[in-house]
Amino acid sequence: MGEALVRAGGGLEPPPAAADASEAVYARGVRYFTRWHEIMFGCAPVLPLATQVVHAFVRDHLAGLEPDIADILRAEKARKSPEKPSAVATVRTWLTSLSVAQASAGYTEKVVTEPIKLLLRRHARIQAHWHRRARTRPVTEDILGKLLETCEEGTLADLRDRAMLLVGIDSGGRRSSDLRDLRVENLERRGDDYLWVMPRSKTDAGTARDIYPITGRAADALGAWLGESGITSGPVFRGLRGQRANKGPMGRSTLYDMLKRRARIAGLDESLFSPHSLRYGFIAEASARGHSVFDIMRHTGHRTVGMVMHYANYQIHR
To answer: Measured between alpha carbons, how far apart are the two ends of the chain, in Å?
Structure first.
């Protein structure tokens, strides 16, 4: 399809609402696909496009091109960083260019098949997830200090929020679901400290357990919260109604809302913080203090080194 597709791309007739700008975008997409095809297969593409070829184009760009192909495209200034995964939105624009070109040439075959749509949806979720993670900032010790300063009035909310922050970080960077599921029955008092005994799954019979110590300032904050709230059984962290704790566990958004509110009061950009910031903060601080990845994993419960390294690398750049 080389010449035919480029010619079709240069002579597209987009809908009246689209204008010349869309036509130019479509033409660039067609030219880029044609050049990729020539590099990959040593020839120009032929209409109608083979589904396997389109699938390979999508798959390779979502994963990042091989170095030898990326080097050629970079040298020709076709793309700035072809070795990096392409955004799903960019790939969809290229596919739209090919669809318009193929339809304009009189072919009825679909360029974007169901398997390709599924691949795009899956990668869209992955990219959205990592985009949120990329924006999230860890609650490192300096940030934690600012958040704790907003919890000094002694209200029940202050005591709860202080305990959630310190337990969430100092016990090994717990997940928000861990804090929500923590019950008094999971705590064993050891002098001034606590042991958090956590079943590894809902299905085991209690024989496989993870144990995380809660000591020092975190233990003090937890004890102050439990004492003032009068909680002796059931969920440890709960929603509040005035100066009274609710009977049930805190809602799924309670920790999220608390972090946003405390960050806002502290004068921080609240959009940069989420419940995951606590777990992220523990790993970043532990790494900055020289703890090994495997020591960190023992505290956080991570099963893979790569995820811990992703978070630990924050300390290198801050």
So the answer is: 50
Strands lying side by side in the sheet with 193-199: 187-190, 193-199, 209-214
pLDDT (tens digit, 9 = 90+) per residue, 231-272?
999 999 999 998 899 998 898 899 999 999 999 999 999 989
Which helix (H) or strand (E) segment holds residue 244: the answer is: strand 244-245
Alpha helices in the chain (DSSP H): 2-10, 20-41, 51-63, 67-75, 88-104, 114-135, 141-149, 156-170, 176-181, 216-229, 254-265, 276-288, 293-300, 305-312, 314-317
Taking the C-alpha atoms of residue 112 and residue 109, their distance in angstroms, rounded to an integer, is 9
Q: What residues have CB less than 8 Å from 161, skipping those under 6 apart?
A: 151, 258, 262
Residues of the chain with pLDDT under 50: 1-3, 6-18, 201-206, 315-318
Structural contact between residues 280 and 307, judged by C-beta atoms closer than 8 angstroms: no
pLDDT of residue 3: 45
**Ramachandran sector of residue 71 (left: φ over 0; alpha: ψ -120 to 50; beta: rest):** alpha
CB 62 within 8 A of CB 86: yes
Query: Rounded distance, CA 214 to CA 236, Å?
Result: 14
Structure tokens at 42: 């040593």
pLDDT at 13: 39
Q: What pLDDT, on the 0 to 100 scale, is given for residue 12?
A: 36
